[in-house]
Write a structure and sequence with these properties.
The chain is α+β, with helices and mostly antiparallel strands. The chain has helices at about 15-25, 30-35, 45-50, 90-100, 125-145, 145-155, 190-210, 215-220, 255-275, 275-295, 300-310, 350-360, 365-385, 390-410, 410-420, 430-440; strands spanning about 65-75, 75-85, 105-115, 115-120, 160-165, 175-185, 225-230, 235-245, 320-325, 330-335. The strands form three sheets. The protein has a four-stranded antiparallel sheet with strand order 3-8-10-9. A four-stranded antiparallel sheet has the order 5-6-4-7.
Amino acid sequence: MNHKPIEGFSKLPKQGKIEWLVNEYLEGNQEYQNILKQYWNDDADLQKLHEEFSENTISNFYMPYGIAPNFLIDGKLLALPMAVEESSVVAAASKAAKFWIDKGGFKTTIINTEKLGHTHFIFNVEPHKLLHFFNFSLKKKLFETTEDITANMRKRGGGILNISLVDKTAEMPNYYQLKASFDTVDSMGANFINSCLEQFGKTLRQEVATSEDFTQEEKNSLQIVMNILSNFTPDCIVRAEVSCKIEDLKDDSGISPEEFASKFKQAVTIAEIEPYRATTHNKGVMNGVDAVVIATGNDFRATEACAHAYAAKDGQYRSLTHCTTDNGVFRFWIDLPISVGVVGGLTNLHPLVKFSLALLGKPSAQELMSILAVSGLAQNFGALRSLVTTGIQKGHMKMHLLNILNQLGATEEEKLHFVTYFKDKTVSHHEVINEFNRMRGN
């Protein structure tokens, strides 16, 4: 091995962790210590709060926190907080919001809010015998033994909605599931769901052990493999949409509303049938979704996993958004499976998350679902609008221009020159370098 393993890294103080890393991996270069420390917050209490969000923390990793204004959602005008490092995401979302503000804005519908979890177990028993045991004994016991866990959630209007037995023995020998659906109201609910499921596992073991329905050999075969929520929530769905007469789709690119609508629909259809395009298409959707998910302290990895699983639910990966142009009306929408919360987790701790939720009017979990779907739809509209008119690079590279100039060490005066220089040109890395070298006389 090129480095020595370390014992007890987590027990070292923060400075000890940094010194070990710098000495072991970075040749003792003090500059790297300085980089880490310059991102510490001067407020010691705030810095400690951030460090306690996760383990083995040595610094903070900053992301730009931007605002996309002018979102008219279900009659309310909102400014969306977006935490994202990619150029043009906030600009594209803002431009789409402005495009639709005088056309009725975005409309949303909560289709369902069920979340899922499973107790996965192995049991060498006839399926019909297990089903009888579940229906006439176990199901009732599962509800009873989780009453203490679900009490507070039930008071808020949520709880366990249903429990079913799923026979998966055709796919794996002796494999079954207890599948449960939940309503977690305004919380994302991961801890609540997992606590219920772990009790399911205990109850299943206890009830099988004392049941007269099974032989001792069958009882001995029971294995509780795991109890865990699913981040795939195909029954926790929100729809966001925009629509207007095709003749109102006036675009500053110079093409007619009819041509714009036709090309836009073709672009969406291609993403519906071609997985290579659908992957990039949906990545653009998630640019908008994830930026608001992160800004509101929710789990963007779960959001991504769920969205992409849903996009492949019929066996082929497809677009999350859809478009029609029937009877002279342009309609563009998304059905997004998403599970988020506005209480618990970072929502009660992270100061910027608190700011984001306050900015959005302290939404309920369902209202936040709507906002996230709208953000994804707007971002996708902005990207497709560019693709079928001017091309994606014109806007994206213009936003990326400052990144290139910062890499080159350009002065503020030089940056102003480049903004003017590219006012009527498409930005390319090659052209920026050429013009920069010309200015510097290289």
